[in-house]
Amino acid sequence: MSDHTPASARPASPRFHLAQFNVATLRFPLGDPRMAEFVALLEPVNALADAAPGFVWRLTEEGEPDATGMRPAGDDVIINYSVWESAEALWDFVYRSPHLETMRRRREWFGRHADAHLVLWWVPAGRTPTVGEALERLALLRDRGPSPRAFTFASSYTAEEAAAAGAAGAGAGETASV
Question: Fewer CB in a 10 Å sphere around the end CB: N or C, the chain?
Answer without folding.
Answer: N
